[in-house]
Amino acid sequence: MTLLEICIFSYLALDLKNCDACVAGSESYADFREQLLSQSECEPLIEEYCSTVGFPSNPEDFVKYLRQELSEVAERVDKICADDKQVKINQDGEIVLTRVPSTSEPKEVEELENKLRDLMPERSILDILCNVEHWLNWTRHFGPLSGSEPKFKQSAERYIFTTFSYGCNLGPNQMARHSRDVVTSHMISYTNRRHISTAKIEAAIRDMINAFNRFSLPNLWGTGKRAAADGSKFEIYENNLHSEYHIRYGGYGGIAYHHVSDKYIALFTHFITCGVWEAVYILDGLLKNLSDIQPDTLYADTQGQSAPVFAISYLLGIKLMPRIRNWKDCAFLRPSPDATYEYIDPLFKGV
């Protein structure tokens, strides 16, 4: 390969990443303009959508609405910070957060933990899958892709074994080895190929989330209106289209990007590459979540911050609350030139 070819492919890769170039017939690198609605298609929908979410439908009133909202929030924060001992503003106009004092753990905590262990017998994952199947019949979502009824004699048992095999990353061979000839590797792999799809798995998961939501204990942990998004690196073989080298953690793998409710149950998981900015996928967990738990506030680490995603989340009625990297360097803007505040005024640098 010549230097010219290397140069061409390098710039082509960059243009594909920036959407300045596209590949005809591709899914990942298609022309994004063809996937967008035209202006003539959007305009009739604006009035109805703005009425639904409570936004003004014309640009002038919308800007006025945002300025008013900023003014109200700034006044509220100014009153809170003036009486808050944890938040201070130094002579340079920078916010200083004092450390929260630690509290000692009560002695009763250990007694409670021991009591809970005594009342909660240890269960294997297979036992749990079988119990949940007895309650919910979640395997009813699985079956031939044609939509016909499964011809297996014990279809629920086969689906539970297959779910355990691939869900725990054992694979069909190891599953067959440890099942004591109850199932073969061919039975497991065939069931996974011909009877299980992403849509079927999501339907089964949705049944479990909805059943979990009906318990009383999770309602003591949270309201279901908040969720947190974060990724976990999993090592996979280097010779894989999804595998990338992770700069921070080292090694090849992928990122399992989870959205977890404040009721402590995972709502959505997306497996993404190591090099992608997580904010690109942060809204998917809420938009594709069809369960009874519907959060409207989403927390994340610094990978969740992105100006376009902030804008889209606001228009969708989602409160995106990621950790802001280098937030002391951010400049706050006043809602109007004459807006002044008693305590937080040094933070504002312009209008």
Question: Describe it for me?
Answer:
This protein is α/β, with parallel strands linked by helices and 351 residues long. Among the domains are: 80 residues, no CATH class; 110 residues, Nucleotidyltransferase, domain 5 (2-Layer Sandwich). The chain is built from twelve helices and ten strands. Strands 3, 4, 5, 6, 7 and 8 form a six-stranded mixed sheet that branches. The chain has a two-stranded antiparallel sheet with strand order 1-2. A hairpin with a 6-residue loop joins strand 4 and strand 5. The chain is globular, with a radius of gyration of 26 Å. It starts with a helix and ends with a strand. The mean pLDDT is 91.
Q: Provide the β-strand percentage band.
A: 5-15%
Structural class: alpha/beta
The Cα radius of gyration reads: 26 Å
The H-and-E topology, N to C, reads as: HHHEEHHHHHHHEEEEHEHEEE
- Please name the fourth-level CATH homologous superfamily of the domain at 221-330: Ribonuclease H-like superfamily/Ribonuclease H
> What form results from the Cα inertia axes?
globular
CATH topology of the domain at 221-330: Nucleotidyltransferase, domain 5
Main sheet: strands, sense, barrel: 6 strands, mixed
Q: Give average pLDDT, whole number.
A: 91
Q: How many strands?
A: 10
How much helicity do the residues have?
Answer: 40-55%
CATH architect. name of the domain at 221-330: 2-Layer Sandwich
Taking the alpha carbons of the first and last residues, their distance comes to: 53 Å
The parts where pLDDT drops under 50 for at least 5 residues are none
Question: Can you identify the CATH class of the domain at 221-330?
Answer: Alpha Beta
How many distinct helices? Answer: 12
